[in-house]
Amino acid sequence: MPPQAALVNGQDPRQNSYYKHPAKKLNAKDHQTLEDANMTMDHDILLEVSVDTDRSSHSGVHSIGNELALVPLEPPRSSVSIAGGPTLSNGHSTGSGFNLYQGSSVSSSLTTMDDNYDIYRGERGGLAGLQNLGNTCFMNSVLQCLVHTPPLVEFFLQDYNDEINRDNPLGMSGELALAFGDLLRKLWSSGRTAIAPRAFKGKLARFAPQFSGYNQHDSQELLAFLLDGLHEDLNRVKQKPYIEMKDSDNRPDEEVAYECWKNHMARNDSLIVDECQGQYKSTLVCPECGKISITFDPFMYLSLPLPSTVTRAMTVTVFYCDGSGLPMPYTVNVLKHGCCRDLCQALGTACCLKSDEMLLLAEVYENKIYRYLENPLESLTSIKDEEHIVAYRLKNGARKTKLEILHRCPDNVKGGDRKIFGTPLVTYLVEDPQYGANIEAYVHRMLAPLGKAHSSTRSHEGKENGFISGFDGDALTM
């Protein structure tokens, strides 16, 4: 249900709007919602309440006459915040606020620190969480980091009003610092109940419209805005002097660094500068005359590149060219800028390559051998991650005649034609073939492990490695 502009304590108050213009009478009805009355966030309403002396005396509340109260408009919640001049609470003047009880609680938003924050009583604070207002986890993560930074906690839990620079044209009249300080104090109270940062979110949307709404944003961008805004709101320098930067002129770095930091502090002096800023050294060398210019520049953030990995994982299927086993995939880590020899060594270790064996690398494309990677010094950067790389276990020195076996099966789409499937098998013939029977013997020996794979487990392994156990034809390439 939307909040309504209801009467306070049963009286007939006169309501005046002070939003961005002089006092203007606001005729809000009891049944009107805040939206219908054109009230928005940060909209101050002045209520002039007439207190009945007779009724007050019977109820135990002593009247001091008409009361004025500035009512800051906030999102709907269980209590209505009222702040402003001297008020009454159970017959006692509190100075900063009062509590009226009529169904819902009306409490002050500007109470003393000792009343609300038990951190000074030795109780552990800072255990409260922040509720998400939509997709505002980006904001909550930044706020939790800041409100748990010890120097900021110590600063904002004390009286920091004298530190606020309300006249800084680059700042926000201290409103951002006040909103952040109020939120920090609430989070550092002794309670553990999660807090909805609606008031802070409203201030943030007011000064940084890019963060308005309840969508996700970049946390770093928000952090940069908050630190810059807090710095300007807390800048102790009221009048920034003009300072002309001097050249280093071959002076010691310590002297130049001290001078640059002193000049920076003459224009920027705040808690944020004390805790979150530094300076780095920049060196420029003229390629023509060789003159060296050294400057020291302030910084609040350092953009560092993510460390690039020096290794890459490669998955290669190793085939037995003597028919002694089924193909087996291996995933190995090699240097990203390594060579094919490094890949062969890693594969040899993974598949327990024998001393009298070697590996032949090949790239398979569309079920055919696209190229052989026989140069051991070829860079691995030439192999893309999506390329299909296989390795064949061969006997050392058996490099006379190369035999490739392609797998074919009937193509039902093209009717009677055969299509190539799977991964080719490769081996070397020890002797030059004189008869077709010799080649047939090689083929049967290499296909024997596939023919024996009748179990479901082995059949599944064969499919994963590009094989189908049921084949009815082979094509030989020599």
From TrEMBL:
Coiled coil (residue ranges): none
Keywords from the UniProt entry: Hydrolase
Domain USP: 128-478
Family matches, as InterPro entries: Papain-like_cys_pep_sf, Peptidase_C19_UCH, Ub_carboxyl-term_hydrolase, USP, USP_CS
Biological process annotations from GO: protein deubiquitination
Residues annotated as transmembrane: none
Domain of life, source organism: Eukaryota
GO molecular-function terms, A-Z: cysteine-type deubiquitinase activity
The family this protein is said to belong to: Belongs to the peptidase C19 family.
Name of this protein: Ubiquitin carboxyl-terminal hydrolase 9
